[in-house]
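Structure, all two chains, one model.
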Amino acid sequence: MIELKALTKHYGRTRAVESLDLSIAKGEIFGFIGPNGAGKTTTIRMMGGILAPTSGAVLIDGQSLAEHPVAVKRKIGFIPDRPFLYEKLTGWEFMRFSADLFGVDGDGFAGRAEGLLRDFALLNWRHELIESYSHGMKQRLIIASALLHDPAVLIVDEPMVGLDPGAIRMVKVIFRALADRGTTIFMSTHTLAVAENLCDRIGVIHRGVLIALGSMAELKASARLREGDLEEVFMRLTEEETGS
Amino acid sequence: MNGVLALLKPRLWSFRNGGLSRRAKDHRARLCFFSLVGLGFWLGIFVIFHRVLAYFKRVEGFGDILAFKLMSMVVMTFFALLIFSGVIVALSKLYLSRDLPLVHSLPVTPGEIFLARWLEVLMDSSWMVGLFSLPIFISYGLVFEAGPAFYLLTLPAIAFLCVAASGLSSLAVIGAATILPAGRIRTLAVFFGVVLVLFVIVAVRLLRPEQLMNPETFQSVAFYLQSLETPGSPLMPTTWTYDGIRAALAGRWGEAAFHLSLSFTGGLSLLAVNLMAAEKWYFRGYSRAQTAPTRLTAVPDPGRGWSERLSFLSPPVRALAVKEIKSFFRDQTQWPQLFLLLALIVVYLYNFSALPLDRTPIRTVYLQNLLGFLNMGLAGFVLTAIAARFVYPAVSMEGQAFWIIRTSPVALRTFLAVKFFVYFLPLLFLSELLIVVSNLLLEVTPFMMALSVTTVFFMTPGIVALGIGFGAAYPDFASENPTQSVTSFGGLLYMTICAGFIALIIVLEAGPVYAVFMAGLRGQVLTAPQWLWLVGSLGLALAVCALAVAAPLRFGLRRLSMSSNGRGEGDRPSAASRGRRGQGGNTRDKR
């Protein structure tokens, strides 16, 4: 469903992402982890169409994002790490705005938007201006709006930042249910426990290069660890790379 | 005191490091441009005041009275400006700045924070008034042949006035912030400030100051001013400053020193009162400003019904248009600007109604149509000023939420086209209104009316497209106040190119239109070369107008498409951060 082919991004002489190749199947939850400045957000931004790659390609459902940006973006739900929204719109108006952009038909909109806002505990706030929302409420509104058009692919940058424990649990349940229904989820996170619990496969990026890829068992093997959690695997892998 | 100095250091160091910034080039270009404009303005003030004062000096009997009346008005106006600007700056520095949470978490007392911030308020709100008051007082010194001591005393007099004004402003803000949230005070302050400016502009214009130059009315006005010569209140800082400067001008040094001492101690006393008030109320007000707004009971919705009104558009286009309109009308900081715009239009049209065309030696019909022709350019410049405020920042107004557009299945071309039409339609209405009403007031010929209406119809899309295009090519999504983006390199480029575009259209039309007009006036028929000239020039003007729409939109689209989150070259790390990364250190920027 998602294919990254030799995806590269250079900022001047700095190599943020170097020749990244990845293939993620339909219905898979893929975790993307790495230290600060490793290239996670750059990769996510290229996949969301916010940033043009220096070279390489992003393919969603076999279509190139660079060649068919509008058609490809219609299949994507994008959730950024920081919830910047149009502060002068109400929550409901923002949902309507997203629906119109993504071609959600008018008849189905109201029921679907109400359901999502109820799921994310925002229904009672739907007619308030977004400027009066807390950080967590804005983040929940973004997630709700990203799911409005039932995307085939969900690209998520740090989904749990700013969310309370209840919301984190709810997001995990929703993501799992979406994946079970065939939605592909690409998620970058620093919360290693979330990645370990939720993701089918995990990729570790360091200094712009993918240094490890696989299930938890495969990652442990590549880190030459028999036991231990993802944190230990992560530390071992990144230390080895830094030391090498 | 060490705490105060430490708190001021980031400001000083940021200023010093300005040259290392990735926007240093932009900053330098802006600084050069505004320095030149400022110098021109400074010299203009000097020339005007010197001439007026020299003229007053020659008037027997009440020339000095007029000069001193003018000085008291100048001091009073400066004081009002200082107070107003002090209130706005103090609100921002003391309660709304983004760095305040960090500053308040530091181990310094609220008194030290207040004093450091107050010093910044004093500098930021006063430097411009101080700078532009100099040519006025230098003019007084030269015309009244004062010695060097006058200039030495005038400088501290102005400085003490600034201290007093900042003291009063911050005291007012501290008081208000204990009652109202700081955000609301800013809206109110800007609103009342703009209403005040609007009132002054309209009142001054309706007074018809040009009549002062009429010898028949001048004497009675002067006698009236003389009758108003009453001493100011001894409690007012303006009285201390005015009396001090006036005494220094007359060489009465003892008296001047006394008034300046009053001014100095008055300013210090106000600062002491401020520090006491800050100790008691500043943190409470700041804490109040941090509180998130409670749940709103009702959402103001001037944009209600726009979805229905625009239902003929495709859903994505309608969504963008409705979002644009609602965000604009719900942004309270836009409202005062709209009032100011209204005042500008009223004054613009009133000027045409007040023109003494019947008293001119040039034949009226010729002058009326000449003014009608030049009016097209003038309306274009007015439109450019309005577009610089509203259209150019339109793309930057997306701010950090621009990711929504970048990740949505809408082409950037559509996004820019919606922005263009949302601003083009009201501005076209406005520019045609200006042109038609002013031409009716001038009683121009039907030919000139038709030409003006048509020219403005084709020129307005160009002015708006230039604004959208350059705004998209040089966006500033990170700015706290995107409307200020017009003072950036891109904004200056926009205004310069826009002025060139308007001038080119006027120049292209001038020759053939003159030929047509004079032929009509003399009852002659146009010759074949004149027809050719007319068609060629108007065709070229039309082509330039079309180019002014297409080229900037394409340019803006290309630059915006190439940029990262719309930040163009800015997405590249600075030399400093490259260095850090090169050393393997962590950076705050996410990659």
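The CA atoms of residues 1 and 62 of chain A lie 7 Å apart.
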